[in-house]
Amino acid sequence: IVVENAGRTKVHRHTANLGMAPGSAEHLVESTLEAARDELVRGLGGLLGRPVPVRGGFPDRAVVVGTPDSSPLVRRLVPARDLAPLGPDGYLVRSLSRGGHRSIVIAGNTDLAALYGTFAFLRRLQAQHPLAGLDLSSVPRINHRYLNYWETERLYAGNNATGTGGLDGENGAIFDFTATGASAALNLPVILDRYLVAARAMASVGINGITINNVNANSFYLTPAAIEQEAALADALRPYGIRLAVSINYAAPTDARFAPDTLTREELDPYSAKFRDWWTRRARMLQAAIPDFMGFTVKANSEGQPGPQDLGYDHGDGANGMAAAVAPLGMRIFWRTFVYNADVDADRLKRAYLEFGPIDDEPQPDGTIGRFAGNVFLQTKNGPLDYQAREPANPLFGRMEHTNQAIELQVTQEYTGQNTMLCYLGPLWEEVLKSDTYATGADGRLLAKRLVGHVVDGTAQGHPDSAIVGVANFGNAGNLTGHHFAQANLYAFGRLAWDWTLDARGIAEDWVRLTWSNRDFAVRTIVAMMMGSREALVSYQTPLGVAHQFRSSDHYGPNPAERLARDDWSPVYYNKADSAGLGYDRSPTGSGFTAQYFPVLAARYGDIETVPENLLMWFHHVPWDRKLRSGRIFWDELVYRYQTGVHYVSWMRRAWDALEPHVDARRFAEVKAKLAAHEADAGAWRDTCVRYWQEFNGRAVPTNGPLAI
Ligand code: GCW
């Protein structure tokens, strides 16, 4: 291992007393190249089963890591023209053989790129891909590859109270800002192993930023006491290229914790100097402690959170007010579009576009179009509802051509089995990123690049900046994510954030090789389990496009009969079950939501004859007797889908049992136990839903089909 000048670019320590907790297995590094070197020492040593020395000079069979700036050897081995197209984050990994002298060089234009290349190299090695003739290079398609971390809300991994590392513990947040009593001795700036394990995991797939607190934001994270801890965390994560942001509450300036620097409610006017100066002051404090602080994530006028609408302004006014406050500091505002104010339209799915679209279309005094500021990113969930296991793509993708837009994916499995069900989300994200928006340009012609992924990476509509956000699933469980297979979702998110054109199967295969086994039988079986797991979950929970049937208490089990104070939270609002059929009519003769899509999709979704069957009930109220493509009538098909979903889970359980010889005993048993619960809960979904539909159609469960209940 040759890493010249590894300690060259020290990451400045702002926190004097930063240190690892006693007895830690991880250690702090001071630079990104030191991180790369240590990954190689650990990774090569582990994979080869013997220590691999760090050396100077240019020994035979060296792995050389660096940049042309850090390493004269890299300068000699890699022509400058090969590095030029790699940008700041791209890397190359090459095996070279000169005069009988063999080496592998890992290089990029920045230290961080060299670290990314190091992980890519280790990945190849661990997955047993051949190294001979190796010549790979990779450049991310998206600039900002971020996680949002919601602390304890919707976090299904971790065990705070007992520290036993069990899989089903309390929802323990990974970064502890609030420890009190005896455990306060382990509070930040004391760095726990798991912070660095998380940092290494994130960097290994190219994630480069994290918003550390819930979007239902507690203003504590803006107080001096919290900023001191955030600075420590930022220092520890910085060598891995992970930058920090925080979520804020729009009304934070009124919070008494900031007294005497507080504003009145009336002073939250986004155009006022008072409001903007307040945010500039906070942002300055953060930047003083965290020089590379990224900015703020904002959930405003959504689910009870305050926002500019409380003062009669719109989302554009609010986002731009905050953006103006932080622009001089080079920061960004990530403003979420997850809004569904009931006054806007009876159909919840229509509301976000009705609020945001006109701002994007608005002509500006300088002749340009679109009011959102350049340092605003709108952060939009993949679908128009709320992270369901299958949704059509959100119509905002493609429709907001004058605004920076980030896609937000939910890695944590709120609606996809939480900590119990094995559900690999790669296929869900691949489906949305590769779905065609049929977006047209100013001339009315279809854009050449118009998949959702092209919209997100900026190539569809010529946006130079780009971002993707995953709502993270790690907690303080021993394995970070609780369910062993939930790690695959963090992994897949990172790989797709780097290159959304990758396919979910290839990513699953890599992950299985890195995580479980390189044996053919194991790889084939586990990849097969994973690849069908999401479609199975759709089938036994919400087949044929019937949306959101979750009970409100925990969003885990079913309650299709539930009717809540807010109708748009109620399963009955989505299923619209009656004696005629099932599903929400959003066609031109229904709510008209389909008109928010570009014409090709509007026509396709608007017509029950042409809508894809897997989205059927998102757009239509489907008669029980309607003939579907299988030849079965809708009711029979529906029951069949519930059945196939459950059968798949039973198959996964048996398939896992066959893997016992290939998997270590502890993890084998833990997954086995999860699958048993998974199977029972999938059956409960099927039975609860089918019985409830029967109350409306009075029909028996078809018994002549291949899979009678
Ligand atoms: O899906 C819903 C979740 C909320 C979440 C909200 C959001 C953090 O149930 O827990 O709030 O989405 O995305 O803001």
UniProtKB/TrEMBL annotation:
Its EC number is 3.2.1.131. GO terms for molecular function: alpha-glucuronidase activity; xylan alpha-1,2-glucuronosidase activity. It is an enzyme of class 3 (hydrolase). It comes from the Bacteria. Transmembrane segments: none annotated. GO terms for biological process: xylan catabolic process. Residues 125-477 form the Glycosyl hydrolase family 67 catalytic domain. One of its GO terms (cellular component) is extracellular region. Residues 31-120 form the Alpha glucuronidase N-terminal domain. Homodimer. Belongs to the glycosyl hydrolase 67 family. This is Xylan alpha-1,2-glucuronidase. It comes from Amycolatopsis rifamycinica. The chain holds residues 75 to 783 of 863 of the full protein.
